[in-house]
Amino acid sequence: MGNPMKQILSAALVDLSLALRNVLRQKRRAGFALAIIAGGVISLLLAGGFIQWVLDTMRESTIHSQLGHIQVVRPGYYEKGIADPYRYLLPEGSKAETQIRETPSVLAVTPRLSFTGLISLGDATLSFMGDGVDPVGEAHFAKYFFVEQGDRLSADDPTGIVIGQGLATNLGAKVGDTLVLMTTTAKGGMNAHDVHIRGIFFTSEKSYDDSAIQVPIQLVRKLIKVQGATSWLVVLGDTGKTDGTLASLRQSLDPQAFHLAPWYDLADFYNKTVMLFQRQVLVVKLLIGMIIVLSISNTLSMAVVERTSEIGTAMAIGVRRKGILRLFVFEGVFLGVLGGVLGVLIGWALSLIVSAIGIPMPPPPGMESDFTGEITVNWRMAVDAMVVAIVTTLLASVAPAWKASRMNIVDALRHQR
Prior knowledge:
Layout: H1 3-25, H2 27-67, E1 70-73, H3 77-80, H4 95-101, E2 106-121, E3 124-133, E4 146-150, E5 160-164, H5 165-171, E6 178-184, E7 190-202, H6 206-209, E8 212-216, H7 217-224, E9 231-236, H8 242-252, E10 259-262, H9 263-266, H10 268-306, H11 308-316, H12 321-357, E11 359-361, E12 371-373, H13 379-405, H14 409-414
Parallel strand pairs: 3-8, 5-7
Antiparallel strand pairs: 1-9, 1-10, 2-3, 2-6, 2-9, 4-7, 5-8, 6-7, 11-12
Helix pairs in contact: 1-12, 2-10, 2-12, 2-13, 10-13, 12-13
């Protein structure tokens, strides 16, 4: 390392030391600035943490109530299978299904046989979107598939179904009622079967609950007169392993026979909700950033006025204007770093306390059950909040620092004399 570089580093260290001393000697002003920065960071973490918890809960609910982590279907099913799903059936008990089950990160594989039709109770008849499911395999979806009345599907009750809350309300149905399911067979004929309601469920997606039913898959196969399933839902032990497992399965399965889709490609409502909340968090960041910029800029401007004579003396003994500029910029950065660290620590601690106590929340639209909210703060949010604190204080310090470095030496020395 050459001498010029050593000189630059030495000068920077001196400026940093002076900036830190200036911050510490103005305890009242520094405390006020730190309170503003830390308060902004805490607000950002708590607001963002609550939104993150909502999104995490919605993600897991979407995965564990409807989609699974990965869906395995026939190629072309998503493009053409909605109109003619029974041309894209997966075989029952195939080697591919066994291979998927034996993948280390896979917790379970459960078949789904999608179908549509009409459901009748007395004089009321409505359309429905149904899933034929394995009552035993569906145990892996129990956490976020809420049965508010009655019981879940049972292998011992082949004609018992569960019905979405909105659909049950529109039909005027209750647990124990006998309904008639009417659907089209794979060859175009009509078929019907009497069923009874075992339970009424709800999920995080009201539009799904308004039209959905779940039926034992053997009964659906009997109704439609087919074997197999329209999809296999792959459930993992950890959502974070979705991409790795997806890549592994795509390498091991024949792409001509199987198409694999991750949950995030299918969760349209979730993806739109994420985009909406990201915009809201961005607005919060901008508002907090503006508050910090205006407050810190005002605080440093007052410091420049009070230290005018000091600035004039420093320039008179040979400190260059760039040195004065760096000094005040470093002071702003120090405030940002200290306030950011303080805010992250307090915000993280508050998130743990609030989550332990819980946030009572009213029922979401279309649901009857309230819930308890939490605040999830992760390291990415902490880093993001630190960046906001440092960048905003850096921006806030530029104007006061420029003003201080542009002072006339003689006028500065005469200040308040």
